[in-house]
Amino acid sequence: MYILFDIGGSKTRVAASNDCHELQGDPIVFDSTSNSEADTKRIADAARMLVGGHGITAAAGGVAGVLDSERRRLLRSPNKTTWVGEPLAKQLEKGLGVPVFLENDTDLAGLGEAHVGAGKGYEIVAYLSVSTGIGGGRIVGGMIDAARLGFEPGHQIINPHCRICPDCVVRPIESDACVDLEGLASGTALEKRTGKKPYEVTDKEEWHRIACWLAMGLNNTLVHWSPDAIVLGGSMICGMKGTVVSLDEINRHLRELLTIFPEPPDMRLAQLGDFGGLYGAMARLRQDMKHRPAQT
Description:
Layout: E1 2-7, E2 11-17, E3 28-31, H1 36-51, E4 58-63, E5 66-67, E6 74-76, H2 88-96, E7 100-104, H3 105-116, E8 124-130, E9 134-140, E10 143-144, E11 157-158, E12 179-180, H4 182-185, H5 187-194, H6 204-225, E13 229-233, H7 247-257, E14 266-269, H8 276-291
Parallel strand pairs: 1-4, 4-7, 8-13, 13-14
Antiparallel strand pairs: 1-2, 2-3, 5-6, 8-9, 9-10, 11-12
Helix pairs in contact: 1-2, 3-8, 6-7
């Protein structure tokens, strides 16, 4: 049996699979905490419940934040500051008793979408998750693209008062400074501006601003990554109560901004919801099995 996990800023999901193609039963979901040792122990406990006495061969999963080049511990994580520097891979391997493959959580969600979701069939997929924060990953040939410390498109600098898009004339924000994309268009940023949860915000101008800023961020991402498709996910895009950012509006602004390419790539809505990272973990384990030397 194989163990899959997704450690997010607010929720942790754990699942099992017999063959790394399908989930075995329903995942176990629990609230994430500020204590990495306690949460990794809960992952191990959930894994034992899921396998029901069967052996565990290997495990893979994602965690929110920037991992070191060896993918063993967090270097930065806005949502999990107390986990930074902790020996996460070692803690998980101790609890599970098997090798553990760690990746950034958004990278794994993008990998899942590229294999069995909205990005299936495309060679180069740009995945962007717009939720509590904003993260993204580049999938090439069905694999997470190589990078020293991963990709962080949510932390690109955006000028919120930019007038380059004719239809992107938006109500100014309080600060005149440039801000990163996450500081403008994430759920956390929206709540900070309005004092409301994103699903409570009914002001159309707020959603218009977010669509404009996301189009600016996507323009920058596209000219650097040049993908065949963009897949957008996260609670600010899909799976949220009430209003979501309109893909049609984002695409309309993007077409006004993107002048160097004849047209933008296909823009798709993520299909795997909260379980994208678990499907990505299965793909990651399949890749390890494919490249593992044969036993003699």
